[in-house]
Specification:
Length: about 350
Amino acid sequence: MRFLRLLSRRWTIQCVPEHPGTVRAVRFSLGFMASVLIFGMALWLIFFILWFGAHTLKETYQKELHAAQTEIKQQKATIQALSGESERLRQENAALRNEYADLAKRLSDLEDKLRDHQEKIDAAMHPRAEKPAFEPKGSAQGSVQEVTTTVQKATDRTKMIASTAHASSLKTVSIAALKSELFALEAKASEQEAALPVFIEKVERIRDDLERTPSIQPASGRITSVFGYRIDPFTHTKHLHEGIDFANVRGTKVVAAARGEVIFAGYNGSYGLQIAIQHKPGLKTTYSHLSKIDVKVGDNVEKGERIGLMGSTGRSTGSHLHYEVHVDGRSVDPAAYLGGTIRVEEALYQD
């Protein structure tokens, strides 16, 4: 109660001017003053709270802004670094593509070179030739097998190099390793290329030797007499038959048993129309009792080429070809060049 009475007490404040004038008086109660004071303090407190909140918010915003700016700078630096790395990788990829393109071209060139080597080997081993009019008997199997084996080794080596080159192009390996492997392959191909002319020359020399070896039957027909001693049908005495007789109808084609040069073509006594061919030093063949001669002295003939027609000229009992092989001036058994033993198909001697 006392406090309330104290608050309800009224107070007067007079304002007296220094010079004569109106005196102003302000009357108020202590409660009013307390209310004004409390209201003022409340306003000040509200203002302080608002100011402090705004200041705190501003500092928080500035910190966040600074952090964001720092992060943006870091991201820019990262982006620039990634951009530089991307450019570097792009350049490296371009360089790698160029190197792989170069390697691919070198591999393609290497395969072309190996293919060319193979074609040259095939051309040396299998030259084109006309098919004979009849299937010849016999062949120089040993020599052919030797050449075939040699060529097969070279072919296998070529295929190995090409296969390795092709496999290398598919491997996921470093450029340096691929270059090293390709360099080794190119070195092998160059080595093979350097040796190829010598090899081809050797093959051609062997082939020429084979072509000059009388290894095919010179005419179709029955074998009626073989090399060796027999009773001569004219003298009825034992006599050495120095060749093989092939009996067939008059006009049957006669071919050269091997490549060579015609050294005789004409009539030769009891042999009738005869052709002699020199194949190589010390080796010649003769074809007797012909009805027609299609070559002349000095002609070069190929194995299987027609040289005349079968007949019965000279001392002969019927149409046949008397075929002889001479080595170093003496007659030898032609059967050895035709693959082995020759069987007489009809027991009728032809001379």
